[in-house]
Amino acid sequence: MTNITPRTLFEKLWDAHIVRAESAATPAVLYADLHLVHEVTSAQAFTELRERGLRVRAPYRTIATMDHSTPTTFGGFAALPVRDAGTGARFAQVEQLARNCEEFGVPLLALGDDRRGIVHVIGPELGLTQPGMTVVCGDSHTSTHGAFGALAFGIGTSQVAHVLATQCLLQTKPKTLEVRIDGQLSRGVSAKDVILAVCARLGVGGATGHVIEYTGEVIRALSMEERMTVCNMSIEAGARAGMIAPDDTTFEYLEGRPHAARGQAWDAAVATWRTLTIDDGAHFDRTVVIGGNTLAPMITYGTNPGMGMSITDAVPNPDRLDDRSERENAERALRYMGLVAGQPLAGTPVDVVFFGSCTNARISDLRDAASVLRGRHVAAGVRALVVPGSQQVKRQAELEGLDRIFIEAGAEWRESGCSMCIAMNGDQLRPGQLAVSTSNRNFEGRQGTGGRTLLASPLSAAAAAVTGYITDPRTLMEATS
Ligand code: SF4
Q1: In a domain, 423, yes or no
Q2: Nearest CA to ligand 1 atom 3
Q3: How many structural domains compose the chain?
Q4: What is the four-CA torsion angle of 196, 202, 203, 206, rounded to 10 degrees?
Q5: What is the pTM of this model?
Q6: Which atom of ligand 1 is nearest to the CA of 120?
Q7: Dihedrals φ, ψ of 384, to 5°?
Q8: Which of 145, 171, 197 lies at the terminal end of a domain, its last residue?
Q9: Which of 118, 142, 171 is the last residue of a domain?
Q10: What are the helix (H) ranges across 167-223?
Q11: Could you tell me the distance, in angstroms and rounded to a whole number, from the CA of residue 322 to the centre of ligand 1?
């Protein structure tokens, strides 16, 4: 009788993609099923290929888009060179990516292509991301794709070159961490609040060296877009990746998407994907359990995503931390943020509200934001920016009239891209400005030098936009229900 050791989902995918096993001297060589490329981390990688006389090994497993540094200020930008409508500045990285893709035969969703958008939004949207795959991209938030039961790693520039040339990457096998969210979420508590609570619980480095597998009743009840929000920020707790085993929700999302199989091939794919479960008795190196019923809308107060709290709480006192360097980090974060331990965050005035990023710029996120903004106006003195995650999200939002809700509320309605998540394209905070952002990182200067960022859900961001200060979104939802 064969004795098969029960495996977690991660272990199944790891085993299925090993080209050469890890040894004491070398990491494992892992095959990459899908390589997503964008203009920022690929430029140097293509240069390396050119200098070494190498070709892209599997262009059919590679796809490029333009997102990190693209302008969001005008429509119809089909032609190169790309210039910002306001400043006339050229977007050199965007132009370089177009030349590199042409030279190396890599398919490109260029400016003007209605399938273009943020790399972690378009992969799932086009059905490129599928269960059981290994997915890599030169962006930390590649963990997003784990929502489909894929093993998805963010990689550095030198690894981008390696994968382009070999379709493989070197990896040391991570440990496994189960994060189980039991119970149910209350009204006004979203997937973003779940992952901010996970980051607060684990701390910014709490999952270092691990792959997180999310389980539990709350996770099972999430839509695919919500699952992507959760997996997206796994990296913020230090995890190499985050994953959710695929189920009917996954298959329903994928069926009919442009790159999904059809007919018998689809049926065969689903039959295979149904085996991508966590085996009974599988062992995780660690397990963390969070009660979904206990969660409230979350917001960050510091300068990493682990510094998060319930929106109704007071800013924690760094003195509670035993570790000296953690205490000093917390004190420095509060100084940078201009906040004082013990002060409630609710009621703090904000300057800017950013709706966007690969964490929260899908259609369900825009619907959430619009549900609060409908019939209301952005508060005087507040700038609100709505940047869809992709051109398809933008088009869908316009079909539903969400753009009119945002515009009539006084918000800016933009083209898709990373925009103020990373502030590479001119969309940025001014020094000292305080922003509520639906993105994923609140590091010092992330949204512009001297800018201060509070991470929150689209509902909480919309509540801040209309009141002009940090507001528990449930108070506004109750007023409209
Ligand atoms: S939206 Fe932000 S985190 Fe996401 S891909 Fe763009 S820069 Fe990276």
Answers
A1: yes
A2: 141
A3: 3
A4: -130
A5: 0.96
A6: 5
A7: -120, 130
A8: 171
A9: 171
A10: 191-202, 217-221
A11: 34
